[in-house]
Amino acid sequence: MRIGGRQVLHGIEAQVPGDLSSAAFFLCAAALFPGSQLAITALLMNPTRARLLDIMILLGVGISVGQLEEVHGELSGTVQVEGRTLKGATIAGSDSAALIDEIPVLAAIAPYTSDGIEIREARELRVKESDRIAAVATNLRAMGAEVEERDDGLRIPGRQKLHGADLDSFGDHRIAMAFAVAALRAEGETTIRRADAAVISYPAFFETLESLVER
Description:
Blueprint: H1 20-31, E1 37-44, H2 51-58, E2 62-71, E3 74-82, E4 88-91, H3 94-98, H4 103-109, E5 116-119, H5 132-142, E6 148-150, E7 153-156, E8 166-168, H6 173-182, E9 191-193, H7 205-212
Parallel strand pairs: 4-5, 8-9
Antiparallel strand pairs: 1-3, 2-3, 5-7, 6-7
Helix pairs in contact: 1-6, 4-6
C-alpha cells in the first residue's frame, strides 16, 4: 500500500463496530445458563477476531450470526447466543494467540463445563496487565475449584461447583470482568477487590451486566 502526501482530508460520519473481546464477557455470561438468550448488535466480525465464536460453538453454545454488512471496510453483524449445557475444549497453538484477550473469561467459566477446558501455549498471559494465568488460578481456587496451573496455561476440570469468595482483580480489567461472570453461577456472594479496573476497557461494564441478569 502507498498513500500519497499533501492531501486535504474531510470529516465523515463513521460507525465503529463493537469489540468482540468486550462482548465476550456477556456472551459467556449467557452461555452459563441453559435456555438464556442474548443478542448483541453491530459487532466486529473480522475473521481474525471472531475465533471466539467457533470456540463457543465447540463448547456447545448456540451461536448464530446475522445482519452482516460491511462498514468502512470491516464486517459487522449481530450475534445471538443461546445458553446450553457446556461441553469442554482445548485451546492451544494459533487459537491461544487468537483468543489471548478472551482466555480469562473462558477459563473463568471452565469449571461449569462438563469436560473442562485446557489452555496451552499461552505464555503471553503471564505478561499482560497482570499475570493472568496466576490470577485466574488464584481466584478459581478461592471459589473452591480444582485448577492445574502450568507455565504456559491451565487445565481446569469440569463438573465443579463454585462458591462465592473474596477475589482480587489484581488491577486487571479482564480479570475483574471475567470473575464477575464466573460469580453469576456461584453459590453465595462474591466480592472482587479493585473491581474498578474494569473502567480501563468498559466503564459501564457492571451496570450493563446487572441490566441483563434476571434475579
